[in-house]
Amino acid sequence: MSSTFLLRTARLMIILFFQIVVFNHIHLLGYITPLVIGYMLVCFHRNTSRIAVLLWGFSTGFLFDIFSNTAGMAAASCTLVALMQPALLQMFCPRDAAEDLVPTFHSLGFWSYLLYIFILMLVLHGAFYLLDAFTLIDWQLTAYSIIGGSLFTTITIVLIELIVRSHKSTSHFS
User: Fold this and answer.
1) Is-contact 36 15, C-beta < 8 A?
2) Which residues of the chain fall below pLDDT 50?
């Protein structure tokens, strides 16, 4: 097994654990719940194959569905995000970027990375909450859930990214 596979599996288990134990129980204003499982899909390198990204996206959503009893909504939403991630990353990459570019604040720039995360989270929350509502009768509540959840998840992912990247940069004493 490759070290990349083991690293991604460990990352998935950690993110899934915190999503189920902590973030599933946060409901700001009664309807804003962060879906931090989307962080798993944000982190894929530029040269990761589309099939691998799709399989990881489906697996992430499927495991979330199993533990959260969401009946396939997360699997469909994460697969959609995984389908869009390579193309979206390509749009935000600098022209002279390396093939194995890892999307971070340093590689994409702060605002580009923030917009990259927000768009992916908007797609994730949009698909998830539209499948959850399955109607547009109460479209305002669905829109509040999508926009609020996307913003809250984006802020949470930025904080996680800052913690993870600062820990990585301080752990190497060169």
Assistant:
1) yes
2) 172-174
